[in-house]
Write a structure and sequence with these properties.
This protein is α/β, with parallel strands linked by helices and 270 residues long. It has one domain (3-268): TIM Barrel (Alpha-Beta Barrel), CATH 3.20.20.140. It has eleven helices and eight strands. The protein has helices at 14-20, 26-36, 60-67, 87-96, 106-109, 119-128, 151-157, 170-183, 206-216, 232-243, 249-268, and strands at residues 3-8, 40-44, 74-79, 101-104, 131-135, 162-166, 187-192, 221-227. The longest helix is centred in the last third of the chain and has 20 residues, at 249-268. It is globular. The protein starts with a strand and ends with a helix.
Length: 270
């Protein structure tokens, strides 16, 4: 079974689709999954910071919670800015609504991950057993504010908190992400948009993915699609590249879903 992470989803809206330059509805995600032989996927609620809130009402997380019962093949993650005044309350509401993790994007949400003002948020996420999925890599904000190494303070302070380092730092911060992954066993590598050589920010290439598997183990590697920014052709290509890596069949299965399934199973048991 192929079970993928990191799918951004949005309500159906011509205005929103014009801004995105693509269609990112739940129906489109399911269609893409079928084309790529994917059985299950994690869907992220939209970011408020993008200014899309009129499309989904009061809360993007509540919108996703209400939609998910119609899509049994999908698991939902919230999108919460830890610096918002009601962040901890939002986290609890997301958990009660059945969302199993949170997508965080420091460059878009404009927060320094290791700011101690947010430690109550991380503490609550650890308490509830939620996964925190952090975007990493150069993304148009002050680089010192969101380097992967800043996540080390969080992983150290909350050793039972499961953290996914998306894009594995990208081209610019791969070595920082690798240091973090090798030092902290509660940190996982999000292999997302890392296999497209035309992607200037995130490309790592097959050899680095093999290197990661040898250094941290495939059981801590999770493939993500970056849907809808990557279309079905790109996603299918990624999957085929992973299947062709110089790794055992078991390792490839871990990257393509077994690691994510195990992580979420542990989350559901909290």
């Amino acid at each position: 079974m192929i079970f993928v992470n990191h799918c951004h989803v949005f309500p159906k809206s011509p205005d929103l689709e014009a801004q995105l330059g693509t269609i990112g509805t739940l129906d489109k995600l399911v269609e893409t999954m079928k084309k790529c032989g994917i059985q299950r996927a994690v869907a992220f609620a939209p970011f408020r910071e993008r200014g899309w809130s009129p499309s989904f009402g009061e809360s993007p997380n509540r919108w996703l919670i209400e939609e998910l019962p119609s899509y049994p093949e999908l698991v939902g993650f919230a999108c919460i800015n830890p610096k918002s005044p009601g962040a901890v309350r939002e986290l609890e509401e997301a958990w009660r609504g059945g969302l199993l993790g949170v997508k965080l994007h420091p460059a878009i949400q404009k927060f320094r991950p290791n700011d101690r003002r947010f430690f109550r948020f991380y503490e609550k996420a650890q308490e509830l057993g939620l996964i925190l999925d952090f975007h990493t890599g150069s993304h148009g904000w002050r680089l010192l504010e969101y380097q992967p190494l800043l996540l080390d303070d969080i992983a150290h302070a909350f050793p039972r908190l499961k953290i996914v380092v998306e894009h594995v730092g990208g081209r610019h911060f791969y070595n920082q992400a690798l240091a973090l992954l090798m030092d902290k066993e509660n940190v996982y590598a999000g292999v997302t948009s890392c296999l497209d050589e035309n992607n200037k920010a995130w490309f790592l290439g097959p050899r680095k993915i093999e290197e990661l598997a040898h250094l941290i183990g495939p059981e801590r590697m999770i493939y993500g699609t970056d849907f809808p920014y990557n279309d079905w052709r790109r996603i299918r290509s990624d999957i085929n590249i992973i299947k062709s890596l110089n790794l055992t069949q078991s390792a490839k299965e871990s990257i393509l879903g077994a690691s994510l399934e195990k992580l979420l199973k542990n989350t559901r048991q909290k």
